[in-house]
Amino acid sequence: MTSVLTEPNATALFLVVFGLLMAISVVFARTLDRVGIPVVLVFLVLGMLGGSEGIGGVAFSNYEVAFRLGTIALVFILFDGGLNTSMKSIRRSSGPAGLLATVGVAGTAGTLAIIGRILGLSWSESLLIGAIVSSTDAAAVFAVLRGGSLCVKEKVRSTLEVESCVNDPMAVILTVAIVEAVRTGSASGGGVSAWKLLIDVPIQLAVGALMGVLVGYLTRWMLGRTRFSTGGLYPVITMASAFVAFGAATLAFGSGFLAVFAAGAVLGNGPMPFRAGLKRVHDAVAWMSQVSMFLMLGLLVFPSQLLPVAWVGLALGLGLAFIARPLVSTICLLPFGWPLKEIGYVSWVGIRGAVPIILATFPVMAQIPEAERIFHIVFFIVVISALIPGASIVPLTRRLKLDAPEPPTPAAALEMHSLRPMNGEIHFYHIEPHVAACGVPLSQVRFPDGAAAIMVVRKNDVMAARGYTVLEPGDHVYVFCRAGDEPQIGLIMGRTADE
Amino acid sequence: MNLLDYLTPHTIRAPLTALDKRGAIDELVDLLTAAGRVPDPKALKEAVWIREQTRTTGIGSGLAIPHGKCPGLPGLIMAIGKPARPMDFESIDGQPVQLIFLLGSPPEKGSDHIQALARVSRLMMMDSFRERIYAARSTDEIYELLKGQESPTATTK
Q1: Which residue of A has its CA nearest to B96?
Q2: Catalytic annotation on B67?
Q3: How far apart are CA A213 and CA A286, in angstroms?
Q4: Can you give the residue range of the structural domain that contains A282?
Q5: Would you call B117 and A492 a contact, using CB atoms and an 8 Å cutoff?
Q6: pTM of the predicted model, to two decimals?
Q7: Which of A34, A181, A229, A465 could connect to A453 by a Cys-Cys bridge, CB 3.0–4.6 Å?
């Protein structure tokens, strides 16, 4: 088909098909979401259809390119994760999430390797697969926990989210170490230079975190100081910051992925010009990255090579979901005295995603025998781990009563676009019947000095906030206040809907 | 608003026997019930707890102000409890709380309710006062501190 077409028609055709497929899948995203099928899987199927053995006939088997594109995509995803993670969540869940992201990842990798060995794989294969799929996926977890119809209780949600953002470095370190050991032939048994890892891991994490925080603060300083001719240049700076954080940390023998997350978190939690706009850009870029990554995985997979590994892949996928993840996260969370149902929930929602795809290219690039077979097994594990928890998460959350009803989105929104960091912020509150401010005229609400209600959205009406306006359940109230005064306002107004 | 109109040594307890958030709320409601201020303690406990679920009232710096609207209350009621040890309240700054003000009012007294909340949170914003009241060890000590701050003779800052 493509041989008949010459450029620019070939590109034009590709763009038409790709664009239409993208639009169609996004349109159906809501339906899929309700059924519990992660949208990203659609792109996986699209990629397979478009691949050399599908109808598209696109021959793509360049693992180096896949690695590079995948890394860039992951940088965007993790940076966006950092931007959207509040310091409060990080602080609150640092203990459990930190343990899950380090000991948990290593434990999952080890347990899965044992399962692999029992299934008849060699030690090197088992260890590689274990390490490759050992981390949960930031984008998938975010999409599931924050996507449309569900709002999970804060503690559980932030633990899962922070875990998913900080556990990739560990998986990368493990995979690189095992690939290296297998390549040099020193991994005959389970002792993959464990001592070296014990020293390497903390160093890489520390360097990564430090570098990320540094780049984050530098970017914040720069954004606050420099004036650009057009607003469109601001996201260019933040994206540049994500790249530099990753690159510099990696070159300094640190974890680049942790650095990117840290840089994003520093920026997201501080004053930032064009905050709302910047966040939206990064949100879109992260989605785009996620979509491209799964599309690429689909292209890289050869359906004919899937069949021979189907059974072992399926068994490992189930082993990960039902044995390895639950076992390890229970051990990690028990010391924190969590209720069993919350531990069970965290165990279940260990969704894998983009990272294994990138990591699975490592052995291929290192020319390890059987690497392509490993790649196809990883494919199964990712699909199963996205399908099983994905499909069950909504009913499970309701059954365990771990959902916190999300305030509805107001019919109108107010945002402050400030060119330079300001000492003021706008919050919006969803008035629930039992908060103190409900049923009280605004003139009676004692705001801290320098704060005021500015707008009330009631159903489909937008109203100026006047003294005589009596707040009703279901109202959305926009309040302007100085940084730091929010807790006092939240005490009487309840939950902000903008967290 | 003078907090002493609503607080007596009978509605202050230091230290609390409860060790967790829910227990502390129940204990303070029981304290108010014993003082004859709450006709239906179960309903008030429930109201405060439901409000607490919306968003934590642990507003940071070691302070929590759980509150609720409950039909049948005679008017604004208030109690203070000091946890035996700093207590986890799922506060917004993640810090354990050192003092708990519990407030309740009937639904029609919404504006008293809101004024009291504002008064308490402003009072506790004063660093020197906050430090002193957190250091207080007994019910009387807490009451005396409030008296020093709230009595009409003391010059209001």
Answers
A1: A92
A2: yes
A3: 21
A4: 39-399
A5: yes
A6: 0.73
A7: A465
